[in-house]
Structure formats: C-alpha cells, structure tokens
Amino acid sequence: MNILLCLSHSIEEYDQLKLLHGLGYTVASIGGYIDPAHPHTPMRPALPEIPMVQSIKDAVDSLGTMDNLGAAQARLPDAVLEWADVIIYHHYLERLYGQWDRIADWKRGDSNRRVIWRSVGQSVEYNERQAQPFRAQGLERIAYSPKERNIPGYSGDDALIRFYKDPADWYGWTGEDAVIGNITQDMPGRGEYCGLPFWLAATAGLPAKPAGPGSERLPGGIGALDYDEMRAYLRRCRAYLYTGTQPASYTLGLIEAMMTGVPVVSIGPEHMRIFPYGPELFEGHAIAT
After folding, report:
1. CA 42, CA 58: separation in Å to the nearest integer?
2. How do 114-118 and 159-160 pair as beta strands?
3. pTM score of the predicted model
4. First-last CA distance in the chain
5. Given its phi and psi angles, is residue 274 left (phi above 0), alpha (psi -120 to 50 degrees) or beta?
6. pLDDT in tens, 150-200
7. Count of C-beta atoms within a 10 Å radius of residue 221
8. Per-residue pLDDT tens digits for 12-71
9. Which phi-psi region, left, alpha or beta, contains residue 224 (left: φ > 0; alpha: ψ -120 to 50)?
10. How many angstroms separate the CA atoms of 148 and 134, rounded?
C-alpha cells in the first residue's frame, strides 16, 4: 500500500514516516521530508532508512513555483495521484478542499482508495463546519483526542488514534538540573495561547529555565535547542510545567516530556483560553493557581 502524507510541520512528519515505514507501508511525504535522507529542516534527524519515492520528488520539483511543496499539496500532480492508495492531510485543509472534485474522481477510480483528514489539535468550530460536507462525500477523519468531540459543530470521526512517538527517542530522565522546564512555542509572542500568564505566575520566585524559540525573552530562558540538546534538556530538568497550546487538547511536547520521564505538572483546563478542556491524561488531576 502506498501512503501519501500532506502534513503541516516536520516534527509530526518525522514521527509519521517512522511509524508508517515501520509498519511496512511504502510512504512518501510532500513536505520537509520529501527526501527522508535529506530533510529541509534541522528540527528532527534525517531518515536514511526510508527510501525516497523518486516519482513523487520529480513531480513536485517539476512544478517550478516559489513553493513547490505547497503548490503540490494544493493541487496534487497527476503522477502523485496515480501512485497513491491513501492520502492523509493534516492542518491545511483548504489545500484538500480546493481540489476535492479531482480527489473524488480519484476515489471513484478504485473503491479501496481513501482520503483522510488526520486532525492534530488545531481544529476549531470553523474547521469542523467547513469539513461537514466533505465528510458526507467520503472524507474520513482520524481524531487524535476524545476531547475534540467537545468542539462545537464537531464533524465526527472514523477512528481515534493518539499521537505516536518512538520510545527509543525519549528516555533517561535524571533530573540533576534543579529547574522548572518547558519547551515553548514562542510563548512570549503567542501570550495566552501558550499559557504565558499562567507560566509567569506559577514560576515566580522559582528557578525556571524555559527553552525553545522565543524563550530567551522569558526569565531564565535559554532559546532554541537542536534535537540532541532538547532531549538532554528534558532528561536534566527536575520538573516540567505544561501550559498547553491552544486550541490543542495536548501537544507533541507534552508527550516527549512524559516519555522522557520528567515529572510533569499541567495547567488546569479552566485556565485554557479557547475551549474548556485540558489534556486527556490530566483530567481530574490538574491543579489550578
């Protein structure tokens, strides 16, 4: 089976390629890992064990636009459609909806073909209502959290599969650095959407050492880390304060911290900015300030 990925960022792309290849599928991604051995981003390592699908690379390269990857996702080249058995889209659903007639024709050509929206924590009411007519026409949806079902106008799902992480990548907590950690997604710039007020209040007077892009603008912040530095940082932190990223039910960063073994304290759902729900793993156990 040939699986085509049209994802929204390279970290999840790395994880999904590892997972699907490990399960025995032939997988190609129109994204930063279109050539797995030479990714476009340094946020995760290369995947030389995963063969590049040359026909996909050639079809994308031939477009000749300023953004071949985005253009290819927005209108899948004919050679890509001919290759794929399953197409999985993440966040940029307008790229899928804008070519739905072509995708529907592709599906009608073989009853085993599937097109899937893999929701990844970025959906809001607008996305759900926008998806409804496409869901009625055969768009499948794999949810990533049962909390998504609280979103107004929820368009339904066909399966619930939580995020995957390779246990071989995240392990070995030692906790010798007596600080509170967090790997922020530009917490100063995104403010309440990344729990900035909660973080500042909860860490006031305590040794805090946030990491990640933009974290250098926070007290004790150390800035962006590369992949190996980030894993070492999680292993050394004494504790991890999870402040959420709205509108996600939970994030990849939370999974990475928990799999490393660092003790995690989570923001309570009543402090989350958009929807009144927090990480499923912490429901009933979160604390408030």
Report:
1. 23
2. unpaired
3. 0.91
4. 50
5. alpha
6. 889 999 999 999 999 999 999 999 999 999 999 988 999 999 889 999 999
7. 18
8. 999 999 999 999 999 999 999 999 999 998 889 999 999 999 999 999 999 999 999 999
9. beta
10. 18
Cβ burial, residue 172 (10 Å; 0-12/13-18/19+)? exposed
Q: Which two tokens stand for residue 131?
A: 């998806």
DSSP letter at 51 equals: P
Structure tokens that stand for 259 in this block: 């799999």
CA distance 157 to 146: 10
Token pair of 252 as six digits: 């990849």
| Residue 47 structure tokens | 């995947």
Tokens 């899948």, located at residue: 76
Stated as kind and residue range, the H or E segment containing 57 is helix 54-61
Q: Could you give the domains of the chain?
A: 2-160 (3.40.50), 177-282 (3.40.50)
- Nearest-Å Rg of the Cα atoms of the chain is 20
Which helix (H) or strand (E) element contains residue 233?
A: helix 227-236
Torsion 31-215-254-141 (CA) sign:
negative
